[in-house]
Design goal:
The protein is an alpha/beta fold. The protein is 33% helix and 17% strand. It folds into two domains: 212 residues, P-loop containing nucleotide triphosphate hydrolases (Rossmann fold); 238 residues, 2-Layer Sandwich (Nucleotidyltransferase, domain 5), CATH 3.30.420. Helix 13 packs across helix 16.
Amino acid sequence: MPSKSENLLDLPEILDIPEKLLPLIEEFNDYRFFKIDGGRVGGKSQSVGRFLLALAEINFVRICCGREIQANIDESVYALLVDLIISYNLNWNVKSKVLEHRETGSTFIFKGFREQGKLNIKGLEGIDILWIDEAQAITKPTLQVIIPTVRKQNSKLIFTMNRTMDDDAVQVEFEKRTDCKSITINYYENPHCPAESKTEAENMRTTDIDSYNHIWLGQPLLNASNFVYPISLIDHLKKRHDILSLSRVKNNIGVVVDPSGMGADDNVFMAGNDGVPLEIFKKTIMSPTEKALKAVEMCKRVNGWWIVVDCDGIGADTFLELQGFDETFLCGIQLIKFHGSAPSKISMTQSLKNNKPIYENMRAEAAFVAQKRAYAGIASLDPRDTSTIEELKKDVSFVNRKGLLQLVDKKDIKEQLKRSPGGADCWKMMQWAMDKHIPDHTFNMTRREEHQRYADTSDGYQQQNPHDHQQYADGG
């Protein structure tokens, strides 16, 4: 029986792929599912793309290349496939959104499964092969729908991924299924890995082994020491939810708003009482006025007395709308700005001579204030809010060049999740606000002159006795 390396001689040039990935070709008819994971430059996407193009050259197949969220064609494997078509002078008609083979009639289409926050699987029923790249971002609800939807006889599903967490939905679903062929491949097993990449990998291995294990070996981040909310803490927060919900009286109630623009991200509103989330509301398309009205309505309904708005970027419009409301409508509800990009003022010491801050910005400060409250047992997470829990698991910290604690860029988290982490941002801002012990200044109309109307953290907030309460930093 010829070896795999001997079989390479019989394959066309386009199928010059790493030997470890040859089972994708040789055992293609033996499995319905294929899961290929590993670190950077392992050749996963290149190999699958080459195989599918070669297959479509000799057979009529309908192929869908999907992702959890795809804002435009540039976020798909379209460019990879087009480059291969050009490099090997293949007989394809390259259109802006579809690839069509001129002889076999095979097609590639490109699809995001979630549009405007809603699942869209239209057109998957007749697909022969579904290839999902960046499959670590696929959520369990999406997976539960697409698997039975792709049901054509002999249809196949291929997942390529760099694992993020130990409980990635695709990993959990397929790690023990007998109808799935699982392959892990890394850069040192890819003969086409550039020398520059090998050097970069070796440098990271000697300087940052955690990052090397994740980025270059594809290992999940579960045990990384720099997770702000490790799995054990998440579990503790979920266990505390029922206990705190039953024991908490009306103590420190308010609403946090994380506004979004007019794109695919949700506007998120979260109400809480002294560290316990009471309710969460999400909606994609809302005007600044609608957001402001929703925040006040929610705050009044839970008998709250403050509203915190993330004012970085688009959030400023919502805050301005709130400021424009009449005091008789607000009834003493305090309005508090939060700017995540603003400098943190928390320092290691109260000494004016050595008051170096701890955190790079307010975003990091809020995350670690929330962490401390979690370890102290005075914060909780609703176990049913799986979206916020998933988002909190992505928060990773590091010490920057200034020696300050900083969080990974929010854009990186958004890329992993394929959505904005609005629920987690609201939860952290809520814990930050709870830690300020904001006094209740709501009033009946007959007493409105006795109470302060607004609190603005950009100017600093003070009670009637400024020594009784720490001033708010300009948060965000």
